[in-house]
Amino acid sequence: MSIKICSQKTLVLLILAVFMLTQIMGITPLYADEPTYKKMAENKRFVLYVNSKYGYIKLIDKLTQTTWYSNPENWRDDPVAAGSMRTQLASQLVIKYAFMESYSTQTANSYAGSAMKKGLKIKKVKSGYIASYYFKKEGFEIPIEVVLGDDYVDVNLLVGQIKESKTDKYRLVSVQLLPFFGAGSSKDTGYIVVPDGCGAVINFNNKKGNEEYSQRVYGPDYAFVREPNVYVTQYARLPVYGIKKNDVGLLAVATKGDAKAIVNAYTSGSRNSYNQAYFEFIVREQDSVTFRERQWNEETFNVFEESIPKYKKYTVRYYFLEKGKSDYVAMADKFREYLVKEKGLKKNLASDIPFYVELYGAIKKVKYIVGIPRNVTIPLTTFSDAQQIVKELKKLGINDIVIKYTGWYQNGIYFDIPFNLKPEGVLGGKRELENLMNYLRRNSIKAYLDLDFVTFRKGSIFHPINVVATKSMKKTPVKLIRYSPATCYADDDYPVLFAATPSYVSEFIKRFVTYGKDYTSSVSLTTLSKMLYSDFGARKVNRLQTKEIFERETAELKKRFLSVMLSEPNEFLLPFANEVVDIPLQSSRFAIEDYEIPFYQMVLRGYIPYSAPSINYFTADWYWKLKMIESGSYLKFTWTARNEDKLKETLCDYLYSSNYKKWLSDAGKLYRELYPILRLINNKKMIQHNVVVNGVVKVEYEGGIKIVLNYTNKTQSIDGIEFMPRSYKIIK
Asked: Which of 544, 545, 540 is nearest to 259 (CA)?
């Protein structure tokens, strides 16, 4: 008995000694105590609280009676997370920084690197607060602002107030903002919506914890070295993600700094027990440089931007969805509402049901004449050919034809700097183009002339490539290399393209508006729609500035021309579009994704007419036909009239099956089958979309029109109705 009492006394003394030692030496315990919250702001919809010691956020939504947390309440008890991953669960920021002694990147989190070292300061402001996180080891001070809106919460990364005191050794590279806000545990049901291609769903707890989703918003920055062995088929064109958690949900939109944003998502499993999605903002760009001493001896280093771009803030806006209206259709509705209110998106309703045809005019190809290589212009569709194609389509009873004419000007597609946009002579020249445009106007057929102000192959004496092309961090012109689908490495058999600096893009557009606008009243902007990049030349232009230039110039074109057509556009250009083509029908199908959804199409439905990518490029007829109906997409073909057999080893070799004569019969049949359905749903929003069983999708439009699509190879019975394999049925 005395031994037991003695042992208890010894244990108490030992605990007391450890506690006194930690106080004397300033050692902080690894994990924090239970959080207490202080109210910082309140409005009709929300009450905002913060834990001033550790930065935890608590938000009460009065409408849904739901409490949202920035960090899991029971993060300490996570059975999976270990080491730094466990402390990340308690963090509002996870930073990546450059260690300049080795040019490597490392990570730190706000819980272990700032809050637990008493580096967090909270300051109350109107409608919210500012939290400043000081990372003592790295010398970073990173402030974020959390403020309430009427039906949303804005979280601002105050980039303009970031301080770096040890830049000779550490430089901030990126910031993951609220990586666990709204995260679902392994006991929750729900899913994550990501903007991959048309859109994709990642189910909670899908046993894919070893996989990840990570895509840069608006696609890659072409000023940097591209990874050759990366499996990507689609890009993230919308700066958005969504989380449905049990019967509630949220939609997160990168409203500022979107061109510097990455969407990341993970499910429970190997990292921790939570399903999470968040934005990561690139603060300082990085690239890789390879040095070769000998053919067999090379070394690759990371290089980083010298300074942080001068911007006030990067913002994530969180919209909170109502109970029972929190699925991905509701998310698409909320995002469309944001585009209307904040971006000026307007309805472009029309009674016609467009049938899109893209025609390729001319292209340059190297031919050997008397043993000397020469660039020869090859006609693919002359202006008189285009007129004949339209006549034959009209004979088939196809109405509401919309023409997009690519490569119509001098030297055709992918060649010259776009200073001289005169009609190409081998296509018929100015007179034949005028004849074509007059014929189309008389027959009430829309025609868009495509303008490439971004890419080119050949410079000139007064505008050499080294001056006009955008530059990499190595100060050399950026090459838009084509990668082989077989090897995933650069294919040296194809010509190299360059991208014009954003300032030259602006100059090209101004020149065209002044000298070339007489050719057409409607323009198409394919490359400008979907390319976004930096320029590290003498006058540096970061990606955010390029976005502003492209927005400004597209707005100017919108003022000067009757209609503007965009191709698979990045979100910030959508308000300027009268029509949109080439919206993806698929996602990249990353391993973590469970199924794809027509999220992009849901956003546009009832506002802007849109097409799928040209059906020439699809193989399984039944599959893309079902996809077209499911997404409510209009048909698009890409055609030529001649010389498609001469396209080998050109940048247009994908047009090998483009001769319109091979497709006319199919075009007529598809028009007669699909367009009665498209008329039923014309200008109607999608109000319901769900996967009934694996491989069977049910879609409902305004007006009670329902369509069930069976993608399986077996007959399916849904609600007492049988659906044949690989078929669809309309239920009115």
From this structure: 544
